[in-house]
């Protein structure tokens, strides 16, 4: 279920073209890329913390118990954060490839077709 949340966030953020306006608000793609890397690091730290708490709870819980609501809800939040990071990771490189191709005077080829769905032209 967590990976499904991760994918849903990715689709919603990219499909709604939120990365494009976000790059304009934050001052460029490099800033969004940096924030996405920090989100990824925070999400992975969150995974480690949740895993330690779940192992501690699992060692004292009865065999037929379900996880507490706190552990389950924090897991959903971590997957949501990882989905935001994944959206930037999947969309920004295509936009940068298009920009560098046009700066060098080369044709954009198939890159524009991919980019058309991910980030609107500036």
In brief:
The protein has 122 residues and is mostly helical.
Shape: elongated
The helix content is over 70%
Number of strands: 0
Strand content: under 5%
Mean pLDDT: 76
Signal peptide: 1-18
Keywords: Membrane, Signal, Transmembrane, Transmembrane helix
Transmembrane segments: 34-54, 66-91
Give a structural overview:
This protein has 122 residues and is mainly α. It has one domain. The longest helix has 35 residues. It is elongated. The model has no long low-confidence stretch (mean pLDDT 76). Keywords: Membrane, Signal, Transmembrane, Transmembrane helix.
Structural key phrases:
transmembrane, signal, 122 residues, mainly alpha, 80% helix, elongated
Summarize the helices and strands and which ones pair or pack.
Blueprint (H helix, E strand, L loop, with lengths): L1 H14 L3 H8 L2 H32 L8 H35 L7 H8 L4
Helix pairs in contact: 1-4, 2-3, 3-4, 4-5
């Amino acid at each position: 279920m967590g990976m499904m949340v991760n994918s849903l966030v990715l689709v919603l953020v990219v499909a709604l073209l939120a990365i494009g306006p976000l790059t304009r608000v934050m001052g460029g793609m490099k800033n969004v890329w940096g924030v996405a890397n920090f989100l990824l690091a925070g999400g992975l730290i969150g995974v480690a913390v949740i895993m330690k708490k779940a192992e501690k709870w699992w060692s004292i819980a009865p065999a037929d118990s379900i996880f507490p609501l706190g552990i389950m809800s924090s897991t959903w939040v971590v997957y949501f954060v990882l989905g935001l990071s994944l959206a930037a990771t999947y969309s920004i490189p295509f936009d940068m490839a298009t920009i560098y191709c046009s700066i060098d005077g080369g044709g954009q080829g198939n890159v524009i077709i991919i980019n058309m769905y991910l980030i609107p032209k500036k």
